[in-house]
Every structure is written in C-alpha cells, then in structure tokens.
Backbone:
C-alpha cells in the first residue's frame, strides 16, 4: 500500500517531520508536486502563488501563536487529523495573532 501522507514525514529524511519548518536545508526534497516525468506542470505557479499569499497575510499579523483554548498549552498540544490512510492533514488549526494596522 502506498501512503502518500507519510512521504514527507520520514524522520530518517526530515528532522522533526511533524514540525512546519520553512528553513529546512532539504525543503526542496519533498514530493508535494511529484518528481521527474510525474511532476505537476502547475507546481511552480502554485508555489509562487502560495509564497506571495503567505507573505501578504503574514505582513498583516504579529505575535502569531497557536490557540491554547483550542489546542491546549505548550508542551501538551492536541490536534485532530482527518481520518484517512491516504493523506495526513489537520481537521482544524486555530491561531491567534495581533493585527497590524494598515
């Protein structure tokens, strides 16, 4: 059985795979858009759109943190994942932040 949701979560390949880290030295080794002849032709555009969108959102936020109310305190976080064998994804992610005045 092929489990795509585990592909980018191998601790032998990615240090602390459960953490979202944009600064990983091997970030480009993930397989989110496929590889070789099976790569997604829209991958570069999707990456650029995602980067620009995140930058615009983050420019408007400060002091970004996980919600203790929804996910528990640091060191005892709780998350609910989608019940699937194919992909791994959070059902909900609650964050809190301070808005930046425009």
Residues:
């Amino acid at each position: 059985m092929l489990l795509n949701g585990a592909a980018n979560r191998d601790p032998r390949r990615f240090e602390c795979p459960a953490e979202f880290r944009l600064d990983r030295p091997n970030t480009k080794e993930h397989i989110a858009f496929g590889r070789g002849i099976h790569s997604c032709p829209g991958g570069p555009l999707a990456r650029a759109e995602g980067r620009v969108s995140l930058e615009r959102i983050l420019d408007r936020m400060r002091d970004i943190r996980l919600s203790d109310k929804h996910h528990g305190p640091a060191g005892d976080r709780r998350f609910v994942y989608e019940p699937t064998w194919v992909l791994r994804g959070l059902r909900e992610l609650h964050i809190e932040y301070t808005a930046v005045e425009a």
The mean pLDDT is 85. Helices lie at 43-58, 68-71.
